[in-house]
Fold:
Amino acid sequence: MTYQEKKSIVSLISAILIFGFYCLYMYTQYPEGGLGTAETFRYWGSFVLVLTVISIVAHIIISIIFNIVFRITTREKEPAFADELDKLIDLKATRNSFFVFVVGFLLAMGSLVMDQPLQVMFVILIASGFISDVTGSVTKLYHYRRGV
Structure:
């Protein structure tokens, strides 16, 4: 298995674990008595903002740990350059990830048009962000395994 495949697998697993544990934590923080408009925006705004910060920091830390473990176990350095294949795979993964997020964004806006509660819009946005992250990692793994 190549470095890029291992990195994609680690990225996929870490995205799922970070999102899952954070959602479990925030589920316990959900207000009991329902949410008014101001509380809705405050809760979901903090949900998205904190998830973004935690996700970025955790991905950076996991990437550093992965590189250290990879170097210790294989005695190889991470590739210092990206060839055309790596760039093409990264572009395809980014395209698929953005497509999934845009579809999720449109669905979230559509939920507002169909008079759904604000919570539905935020859940769709958060889920589409998570699914787009997973889609990018899966696309990279698929193309490194099967080719372009």
The mean pLDDT is 89.
